[in-house]
Amino acid sequence: MPPHTDDLHARFLALDAFLLAHQHLWKPRPFTHRHLPWEAQHPELSTWLRQRSLEQAETAHNHPERLDAPQPFVEIANQSKALSEVDALPTHPLNAVSSRLSVDVPGRKWQQIEAFAKSLSFRSTPTHWLDWCAGKGHLGRRLAHGGQALTCLEYDEQLVQAGQQLSAKLGIHAMHLHQNVMAADAASRLASHQTPVALHACGDLHVRLMQLASDARCQHMAIAPCCYNRIDSHQYQPLSAEGLASRLTLSLDDLGLPLSETVTAGARVRRQRDTSMARRLAFDLLQRQLRGIDDYLPTPSLPSAWLDKPFADYCRDLAELKHLPAPTDSNWPELEAAGWQRLAQVRNLELVRNLFRRPLELWLILDRALYLQQRNYDVRIGTFCDSHITPRNLLILAELKPHNSGVLPCG
Ligand SMILES: C[S@@+](CC[C@H](N)C(=O)[O-])C[C@H]1O[C@@H](n2cnc3c(N)ncnc32)[C@H](O)[C@@H]1O
Fold first, then answer.
1. Average of pLDDT values for 273-292?
2. Alpha carbon of 102 to ligand 1 centroid (Å)
3. What per-residue string of b and e applies to 275-306 under the rule 16 or more CB within 10 Å gives b?
4. pLDDT tens, 102-151?
5. Residue 65 has pLDDT above 50, yes or no
6. What does pTM read for this prediction?
7. What is the pLDDT of residues 11-36, one digit of tens each?
8. What is the pLDDT of residue 99?
C-alpha cells in the first residue's frame, strides 16, 4: 500500500486496529517482567524464544520479521511487514558542494543531511529556509547553498555561536538565533514565506514546529521526527482527529519502543551495554528476594565505573542506594550467571515486541501527517535514507493547499 495522501487515513486506521488488538504482546516489557502475561497463552513460542542464545537474539534484533518462530509470531510478523511498508521518497540530484561544507560534520550526519536535502521537492521553490533546532545549522547551510535565505533556531548558546562562525567562514548569509522553540515568543520567528525543516528534533520540539508553522501558514515544511518519548506529558497527546478518536493510550515507555532499533555498535560498546543489562537483571532477582515482593523496582542509570566493581559490591552498593536490606549470604557467581541467562531470554522475548516497533512509529508519523492534512496541507510521507544511516528515516513533507482547493483550515 503506497503512502499517498488519500490513504493516510486508511493506513492509520489499519495500524490502529493492529496495535490495539495486540497490545498484550507489545506493551509489557520483558525487562521488567519475570514472566510476560502472553507467555501462558503462547507456550510454544515462549519456550522457543527462551532457549535461544544472546547472540541469536542480537542477530535477529533489527529484523525480527525474518525469524521463523512458532505461531503467532510469523503471522504477526507478516501483518507487521505489510502494514509498515513505506516507499522511499523520490529523490533529485543535488548540486555538488565544496567539501568545506561538511568539515566538522560527523560522516553519518552528513549522509543524513544529503539524503534529506535530496528528498525535498515542493510545487514552488523555497526562498527562505528555517532550520528548527538547528544545532550548528549544517542542514540549513546545505539547503541554502544555492543562495536562499537561512534562519537557524537553536537554544544551546555554544552551538548558535559555532554555527554563526561556520556560516561566516563559508560565506553563507545566515541568521543563527538563540531561541527556545518551546517558549511563547518562538511563534514570532515563523512567517509564511519560510520553509521550516527539522532533522531529528525530538518529541515536543517537532510537534511545536508543526503547530506554529501551520498557524503561520508556512508554504512548505519537512520534518524527520525522532525521540517520540521526549515529551513533557506522561502520556502521548494525539494530534489528528483520528489520533484523538483512537482508544490507544501510549505511555513514555511505549513511546520508546520505536527507538529501540540499534545502529551497529562496536564489540566493546556492546559488551559494556550487555554487562550493564545483565547486572541489572541479576539485581532485579536479588531485590525481589530482599523486599519479599515479586515486582520490578526501577533503578537509576549508573556511571559506567560501576561496571568495574566486583559483582557483589555492585549489588551491595545498589541495594544501599535503593535503601534495601543488605544482602547477606548470596551465591554471587550463581546470581551473576542468572543475570546473563535472563538477558538472553529478555532479548529473545523482546523480538515479539520488536515486531510492533515500525507499526507504532508509523502510527505516530501518520498522526502527525493527518494533523497537517487537517490544517489544510497536502502531505506525503516516505523514507529519506536507509535505516543503517539512521533508523529514524521517515520524512513528512507538507505543502499548503492552493488557495482555491476549497478545503477550510481547521483549528
Ligand atoms: C538531536 S539534535 C538535532 C540537531 C540538528 N537538527 C541535526 O540534525 O544535527 C536536537 C537539537 O535541538 C536543540 N534543542 C533542544 N531543545 C531545544 C529547544 N527547546 N529550543 C531550541 N533548540 C532546542 C538541541 O540543542 C540540539 O541541537
1. 96
2. 19
3. bbbbbbbbbbebbeebeeeeeeeeeeebeeee
4. 888 988 999 999 999 999 999 999 999 999 999 999 999 999 988 999 99
5. yes
6. 0.93
7. 999 999 999 999 999 999 999 999 99
8. 84
Residue among 65, 103, 100 nearest 84 (CA): 65
List residues near ligand 1 (CB under 6 A): 109, 133-135, 139, 153-156, 159, 179-182, 199-201, 205
Exposed e or buried b per residue across 124-138, where buried means at least 16 C-beta atoms within 10 angstroms of its C-beta:
eebebbbbbbbbbbb
Q: How many CA atoms lie within 13 A of 292 on its CB side?
A: 1
Q: At what angle do helices 43-50 and 332-354 cross, to 10 degrees?
A: 130
Q: How far is CA 187 from the centre of its chain?
A: 25
Q: Which residue has the cell 546470581?
A: 335
- pLDDT given for residue 310 in this prediction: 96
The H-or-E segment that residue 152 falls in is strand 149-154
Let me know: does 101 contact 378? Beta carbons within 8 Å.
Answer: no
* Distance of alpha carbon 213 from alpha carbon 72, whole angstroms: 43
The candidate with the shortest Cα–Cα distance to 39, out of 73, 74, 76, is 73
126 to each of 120, 193, 315, 368, 380, how far by Cα in Å?
A: 10, 8, 58, 22, 17
Atom 27 in ligand 1: residue holding the nearest Cα: 135
Q: Tell me: pLDDT of 83 over 50.
A: yes
- Cβ(150)–Cβ(175) below 8 Å: yes
**Cell digits of residue 383:** 523514507
CA 156 / ligand 1 centre spacing (Å): 8
CB 12 within 8 A of CB 371: no
CA 219 to ligand 1 centroid distance, Å: 23
| Pocket mutation for ligand 1, best pick of 112, 133, 136, 212 (most atoms within 8 Å of C-beta) | 133
Ligand 1 atom nearest the C-alpha of 113 is 8
Q: Whose CA is nearest to atom 20 of ligand 1?
A: 180
